[in-house]
Design a protein that fits this description.
Blueprint lengths: L3 H12 L3 H11 L1 E6 L3 H8 L8 E6 L6 E2 L1 E5 L5 H25 L9 H10 L8 E5 L4 E5 L10 E6 L7 E3 L2 E6 L6 E5 L5 E6 L2 E6 L2 E11 L2 E4 L1 E6 L6
Antiparallel strand pairs: 1-11, 2-4, 3-6, 4-5, 5-15, 6-13, 7-11, 7-15, 8-14, 9-10, 9-13, 12-13
Amino acid sequence: MSTETDIARTRGQVDTADWAHLAQELDAYGCALTPRLLTLDQCAEIRELYDQENLFRTTVDMARHRFGSGRYRYFTHDLPRPVAELRAALYPHLLTIARDWAARLGRPAPWPDTLEEWVAMCHEAGQDRSAQILLRYEEGDWNALHRDVFGDMLFPLQVVIGLDAYGTDYTGGEFLLVEQRPRAQSRGTTNVLDQGHGLIFTTRDRPVATRRGWSAGAMRHGVSTVRSGRRHALGLVFHDAA
C-alpha cells in the first residue's frame, strides 16, 4: 500500500517536472512524456487493483463494442488514494496549458482553479460518472483510435501511466496518436510508456499554427497490438462521463 512518503514523492515528481518543456512538447506534437510519477511498488499496487470488482462501476469488453480487443474498467468515484492524489497533483499544471490553448483558439476556458470545482460543474451538467480507467491488454489485444469525449464538459488534456515494464512484461502495445492537420495529410506518433512514467496527450484537438492564425488540429489515440505478455495502464481523464 502506498505510504505517505510515496504520496509525497509523487506530488514532488509532478510539481518539480519541467512543465515549460512539457508544454513545448505538447505544442509541437500534441503529447509529452513525463518523468517517473509512480514508484515500481505503486505501479504493482495499482495494477493489482484490476481484479477487485468493488472498485469499479463497469467493465468494457472492447471486442464486443468493436473498440479493438482487450478490457478496461471504470473506477467508481471512490478512487484509490494514489490515483486520486496523482490526478489532483496534475490538474493545476495542466490547467495552465489548457487555458493557454483556449486563448489561442479563441474559445472559452471554463475550468476553475481546483479539480473539485470542475468535477462539480461536470456533475451539474449531467456528466456525473467517473471516467478514470484501468486497462488490461493481453497478447493480441489492441485499442482502436478514438477520443474520450463524453459530452460538452471537456478538459483538453489527459494522462496515461504505464504500469508494466516495456520489453520485459510485454512487447508491442505502443501508444498511438494520429493528428488530422488542417489542409494536410494526417500525422502519426508512437510512444512507449515506461513503467511509472506518464504521457500527457490531447483529448480532442489542440492549437496548430497556420498561415491564417491558429486552427484546431483534431487528434485521436489508441494502442497498437500487444505482441507478447500483458500490458496495464492507468488512464486519468479530467472530466466525467455522462
